[in-house]
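Bench notes, afternoon.
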Amino acid sequence: MNLERSCSASDIKTLMVSNLAEILMISADQVDVDENLENYGLDSLQAMTIVSKLEKLLGFKPSPVLLWHYPTIASLSQRLAEEFLAQSNPEDLDKAASPPKTSSTFLDLAAEVVLDSTIRPVGDPTPAFSNPKNIFLTGATGYLGAFLIRELLRATQANIYCLVRAADLVEGKLKIKNNLQKYGLWDSKDSSRLFPVAGDLAQPWLGIEPEDFQALATRIDAIYHSGALLNYVYPYSALKAANVLGTQEVLRLACQGKLKPVHYISSVAVFESTAYAGKVVVEAQEFDDWQGIFLGYSQTKWVAEKLVKLAGSRGVPVTIYRLPLISGDSETGVSNTHDFINLMIKGCFQMGAFPDVDYMLDMSPVDYASKAIVYLSLQVKSIGQAFHLQHPEPASLTSLVEWIRSFGFSIEMIPYEQWRQALIHDVTSADNPLYTLRPFLLERWSDQQLTIPDLYFQARRPIISCQATLDALAGSSIACPAIDAQLLMTYTSHLVESGFLTLV
């Protein structure tokens, strides 16, 4: 790094303001440098885009975790300016791409499983399992949430009350509509059945006034808890309020007034402990082991599901749905182009190389996941069960590359370390999504200093069985589409038509 050039807090602030404005499609003067960045609704990939731009300005890669410790543009700019001055020795790019592991206190996840003692059934012990009239849904403005809304509208006659972070109900309704439109799911005739609830998962009482919370609890008949703060680089402490304490508040809502069933959207990440590596885990499997779960997001999902299970032991009717990564709609190809799968594939395609690693594509199409969740949720016998929406027949990464090659494209599979060096030295423009993902892909975790790809090599992963789930779906006509040429063509066609992917 050339220390002769200057990089002041003002320079950093100007860059961050302009980039945030560009991402949010607002003018720079609308950006408040003293506002918590989380309040702008940035997802982890958008935050990493800003980090990548900062790397070019500073000459070193700031850790994405700094966005948690210094959550405003003003505070982060000052901190990065100080770090710039502290860089006394030139560092090669490879070292800069792998910042020292941040120190942290020991985190005992088992000790985090503490559910308020007042959260237990006190109301009507016969909730409406199969014919709810009013449903409460969290995560309505997310990708899976949009498809859950569609399936709930199709499968029930219920009104759907959607928790939304919004200033008022008008803004909340607009956010729900815009999200459904984004994925081609909006139908104006459904508008009368969709009701926004202005609130926040990260706040007590879900950010709802106590009297309104009580009124909502009296009105609704079932809860679908899909909402979570998804950020792959934030520590547990940064995600706890929304993902853990938010789940506690959802369980509180279930117990207020009449008792309501809770359908909790969990993750196969609860089995990321090294204790399950290479082992088959079934739906009824207990997941008491947590050592070796490194990502803060995965840690919060482990604790949150434990809270749900604890509530179930107290008599709250709960059903758990564990999801893998979610891919696009198998019929239309519509997908979340900001998700990890799409960005990785596009980036590797542009690089001309995929890492030659033992990795299975076990993602499930969003339409399969949402249909299965809603169908299972309306079966009384599902209460108290856990389901795995894992793809029953995962495909290898090698098979994806071979499919791409079949169209005449020159795509290599190269050793992981060679691919990592290419990521560091050759991917130097934000035109390639891998540039944005570098802070995530190159961050080191655990005492072994493993990168994210290291953590997800097949040998470190459990084998997720979904046989009990397939048995429960038998006779429903709901089946998970095969990861074959037809599905990949559906996805590719949409990505090309939308302009996300360019095949040249």
